[in-house]
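MODEL INPUT / OUTPUT PAIR
PAIR INDEX: 1
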Amino acid sequence: MTPVYGITRPRHPALWLAAMAVGLSTLTAAGPALHLRLGDWALIAIFGLGAVGAYCAGRLGELSDQRQGLAVILIGAAAMRFALLFTEPTLSTDIYRYVWDGRVQAAGINPYRHTPAAPDLAFLRDEAIWPYINRADYAVTIYPPAAQMLFLAVTRAGESVVVMKLGMLLFEAAGVAAIIGALMRLELAPTRVAVYAWHPLPIWEIAGNGHVDAAMVALLMSSLVVFLHGRPILGAVLATLGALIKPTAALALPAFWRPWDWRLPLAVVVSVAVAYLPYLSVGAGVLGFLGTYIEEEGFRDGSGFRFVWLLEQIMGPMPAAGGVYATLAALALIFMALAVAFRSDRSPWAAVRGLNWLLIAFLVLSTPHYPWYFLALAPFLALCPTVTAWTLTTAGVLLHFVHDGAFVPGYATRFTILTLATLAAFAFDLWGEWRKALRPIGATP
């Protein structure tokens, strides 16, 4: 072995990568059976091992020939996803709603008009999709118009879970290409994409469960690459389309906007209007299940914010805490967005770091209840990694509570562990940023 920049370099790093790919692909293929047989501890262990493997692959990839290393990484990523492609979704049933919404639209019906259980849609029911739709008896769809267009397009190739997964994987492939493009634009090793491509979160949540967040992440990363090539307006349009799949992508807009440029906000407004236009026959119904969802998840009374929930476990009921927390969190995010938008440093790195921190702050403060919401952070593990992003993307598996098993902690205990770990990681990253800010100009990092 030869030391390179203080790191011991193996003689054949591509072969080591290939061996790791075989091991992680085997673990992924065995994952659903292990999870079913051994309970949630197995899934937690798989995520832990997979995250360690992804991190090591990213470091090892930087030490290898970039063409060889990248080829091994992409082949390994494809193998890991193929291992879960034909399995039934075990961690979420959202994909059945995607197929249903596409089917409803193909029948010429506005997906925001009826709940799946409505008599008007009885003729669309089958045994493969209909029985597995969540909230079928009381919730119209919650997904925004760009997601609805995607569901319609994919289901024209086939109204099945596998076809929908394939559609999401195609979007993810575009997202991986965009991550590589961003890495090259930032003059970083393209093999760093291994950190995303081999990470268990996108593998399980996209290949395993087919979450539409794959398309949002692809559009978010594509918008970033376009922006880095000097086309902020087109980048804003792509980010807006991503936000019309999952709103998280809208956090890119402050990073792309140059102060007082009216064209970018106009492009955003026009994009939103055009996307919603085909569905406006239901009026305000285009918001779908959103209002009820916010209440159902506890965000209206504050219990859904896990920092408030954790505080109440210690101090007892605090009726006003939810409103106060939501207000303070919103103000903090607005302040951060303005700081990013009006930053003096207009370099590519400043934009990427600003977007990364906006995503982190939003996901830390909003405390999502489902791990796939953290997919937006996964690409930044390759671009500008933080301890908080690693914690959320890896330990987020604690939010899955599927199979009971011996000594498996309850959901409240899991959420407490994740919340405390996130707070510790966030404090560590903020400390690091503060130390960087105090470092004299020109000092060695």
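PAIR INDEX: 2
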Amino acid sequence: MIIRPATPDDCARIAEIYAPAVTHGTTSFELTAPDSEEMARRMRTITDGGFPYLAAERDGAVIGYAYVAAYRTRPAYRYTVENSVYVAPEAQRGGVGRALLDALIEECTERGFRQIIAVIGDSPNQPGSVGLHQACGFIEVGRLPDVGLKFGGWRDTLIMQRALGDGGRSTP
């Protein structure tokens, strides 16, 4: 497996990987799965903003992806990012998510970001995502109960956070 920068050519596969999380899962609070053109537009916005977008590839096929984007748009938040990690169903529980998140953390640290946030949808039903983030040094910092309505039920979000580099111990 290799971890590399994702490219627009990966967007059809990225859309395929993301679709089950939208149409059958509760990790994403989107209700309609975006197509490859929309994923390409989103990728462009993220990378044009100076944020990393990575792909995990095995035997020439993309099996997962991860990226960060601005946590909030106001300038005071400019050193804080929010991450997303998605792994193809057939590649889950094989270390792909860990490799992607580790690489993403390293890339964000190198780019000078100081905090990384994970917002995990429907967290009681997402032990893999929670465990992945814990294994990568994230800690729970908050929980928002009943903030998303999907599949006829209210869903919470868990907020986890990890310092990057000096974190808040010094000013960039």
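PAIR 2 NOTE: DSSP finds four helices and seven strands in the chain.
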